[in-house]
Write a structure and sequence with these properties.
The protein contains 10 helices and 7 strands. Helix 5 packs parallel to helix 8 and helix 9 runs antiparallel to helix 10. It is elongated, with a radius of gyration of 26 Å. Strands 3-2-1-4-6-5-7 form a 7-stranded mixed beta sheet, sandwiched between helices. It is α/β, with parallel strands linked by helices. Strand 1, helix 1 and strand 2 form a beta-alpha-beta unit. The chain has 2 domains: 225 residues, Spore Coat Polysaccharide Biosynthesis Protein SpsA, Chain A (Alpha-Beta Complex), CATH 3.90.550; 89 residues. The model has no long low-confidence stretch (mean pLDDT 83).
Length: 320
């Protein structure tokens, strides 16, 4: 199969029939063998009934339904699991992403050998309350990730099937799939300017809470990527610095007591500040030590599973 098109959705009953027909039109014209995977993320309208109706008239439609809303990342992750196409396309169901972009995206993956291609909505039809936070978010992510993309959150993207089978998306991490892909070793990431259609039905699901959650997820994924395999480098270093600072305070107070003036060390607020710094330093160091042990066990288990998989693969080859 050439292409799998994964469409996560929430309350988009009005746009689904037109989207399905549009995808069929483009797929037939481009002579692609394709499947469409609709993932209903807990819709409360008639979206699921519409999807069922679409699936009855088309053999190349798959559908997944969540009983409640888990978020776009979870929907994409489940769609990725069952995607069979050589190239996997993701797009939103609100008709703001144009299926006309699919053939060129597929071509960029196949002929230019990109691991993934991200869409760039250069000209957007969104209110300023959405575009300004989006620009700030993209600038921040670009600076932290060192990935030269203009629109990390564009729903229209293309991937090699191998890539989406080797990553896991959760929380609000769908915004950072290019970053997750890069850290998984898929570094050839391209960008394509895509058309952004005005919203025809319904209303946007974007809100300030999603922006805040997205920023926190960026900090989380950056921390895990940099220190997930060496937590002692962070916690141990911070613990040593804080403890040393507290120890210096205690040393100064002891010197002052015996050589400068007679007083009770516990009467000085600086004493408690130094004591607190030493306690926090020890706790940070122990946190890093325990995290390092957990990380080591996790790596040992992954290596064991990897070796077992290789052994099974070799046995199967020998049997053939």
């Amino acid at each position: 199969m050439d292409v799998s098109i994964v469409v996560p959705l929430l309350n988009e009953e009005e746009s689904l029939p037109e989207l399905a027909a549009w995808i069929d039109k483009v797929g037939v014209a481009a002579q692609l063998s394709y499947e469409v995977i609709f993932v209903d993320d807990g819709s409360t309208d008639n979206s699921w009934k519409v999807i069922q109706h679409i699936a009855q008239s088309r053999k190349n439609v798959k559908a997944i339904r969540f009983r409640r809303n888990y978020g776009k990342s979870a929907a994409l992750n489940e769609g990725f699991k069952i995607a069979e196409g050589e190239v996997v396309i993701t797009m939103d169901a609100d008709l703001q992403d144009s299926p006309e972009e699919i053939p060129e995206l597929v071509q960029m993956i196949r002929e230019q050998d990109f691991d993934m291609v991200s869409g760039w909505k250069k000209k957007r039809h969104d209110p300023i309350g959405k575009t300004v936070p989006s620009k700030f978010f993209n600038w921040t992510t670009r600076k932290i990730s060192k990935i030269k993309l203009h629109d990390f959150n564009c729903g229209l993207k293309a991937y090699k099937n191998e890539l989406i089978k080797n990553i896991e998306v959760h929380g609000e991490m769908h915004r950072y799939i290019p970053l997750i892909a890069k850290w998984a070793g898929y570094t050839k990431i391209g960008e394509k300017v895509v058309q952004h259609q005005e919203r025809k039905f319904g209303h946007t699901k974007f809100g300030m809470s999603r922006f805040i959650k997205g920023f926190l997820d960026l900090l989380s994924i950056t921390f895990v990527a940099k220190f997930g395999k060496r937590p002692m480098h962070l916690f141990g270093a911070l613990g040593s610095i804080v403890f040393s600072f507290g120890f210096l305070i205690a040393g100064y107070l002891a010197y002052a007591k015996f050589f400068m003036a007679a007083y009770r060390m516990t009467e000085r607020p600086l004493f408690y500040f130094g004591l607190l710094a030493m306690v926090i330093g020890v706790q940070l160091f122990l946190t890093g030590f325990l995290a390092e042990l957990i990380s080591l066990q996790s790596r040992d288990r992954q290596e064991y599973l990897y070796k077992e998989a290789l052994n099974i693969q070799q046995e199967n080859i020998q049997k053939k």
